[in-house]
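Working notes for the structural subgroup meeting. M.R. asked for a predicted model of this chain before we commit to crystallization trials. I am recording the input and output together here so anyone reviewing the notebook later can reproduce the run.

Input as submitted:
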Amino acid sequence: MTLQDILSAIERALAWLPDWAISAIVFALAASMALFLHKTTCRLLKRLVPARHRFVHSLIDAAQKVIRVALVLIAAAVVLPLLPIDPEVRAAIGHGLIVAGIGVLGWSIVSAISLASDFYVQRTNVASGDVIGRKHITQVRILRRTAATVVTVLTIAAALMTFQSVKQYGVSLIASAGAAGIIVGLALRPLLTNLFAGIQIAITQPIRIGDEVIVEGEWGWVEEITGTYVVIKVWDWRRLVVPLSYFLEKPFQNWTRQSSEIIGTVLLWVDYTVPVAPVRAKLEEVVKESKLWDGQVVNLQVVESSERAVQLRALVSAKTAPQAWDLRCEVREKLIAFLQENYPMALPKQRNQVIDFAEAQKQRA
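Returned structure, recorded in token form:
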């Protein structure tokens, strides 16, 4: 029995109904069959594919919605020519199915891009100290959003071009592309600026996911890079949202451009009587006992002097900026305690000389 025979039997059984009701019932039956076929096929595939193939299972899960909608559209397109409806209505429904099919095609491409990028990111090490891993994840996320934006724009354009009025407008717009082109260019300037900025950032890598940066006087981590802006997680958990173009037009500090290691500085003002050698030895003892020190840099120097005190600068290194901050606080605290306990006279002091005025007058006389 062919599909035509089945539809004829349904039409004879429902002859007492109006044509639009018969068409709706046929559409519903076709959609139900498509959904049943989709559900059965997905379950069968999951049972046949071994559990160790996680990528295949994730592919099936990600494609379920797209395939479900596509099967429903295909079923509707198959039964549409056989329905007892007015030719104009049939043409309008057919046009709607074409537009929906273009949308499903764009949706499937975006889903495929997202799935491929997520699978690649899962295989990449994005530890805080892994510069290569952060480089890869930044490139993947920016290019994924850029590709998704381009596919979305092209999908909408393709769907609109199926309308005759829009197509004629497009032809007339091309014919008079002077002023219209300038207006459209100005309107799309922010979008295009950030779009190209995202591509350039993905290629040149001035910033990456997880980089420690100073932007507008705020220190934080690059938490997210979208298609139009960058989210900086400030040290106190605030979020600083900055346009993508900012990182190509204005200077900023990137503390982890080449590596995450960083040198921290501790400055102490002390009296001229301070013994520098014991303080230097104490500094080395403190960092060697600390779990935050990376074992590379430790140094103490006298870097400044004034009429009242001298300044000691301690340099210590750590693997990351947060660890360097904690190490600086630990060193500062323990060096101050060391001076208070062992050399209290070496702490900064104000010197005053008391003079007996009467005795001074006698000496002058």
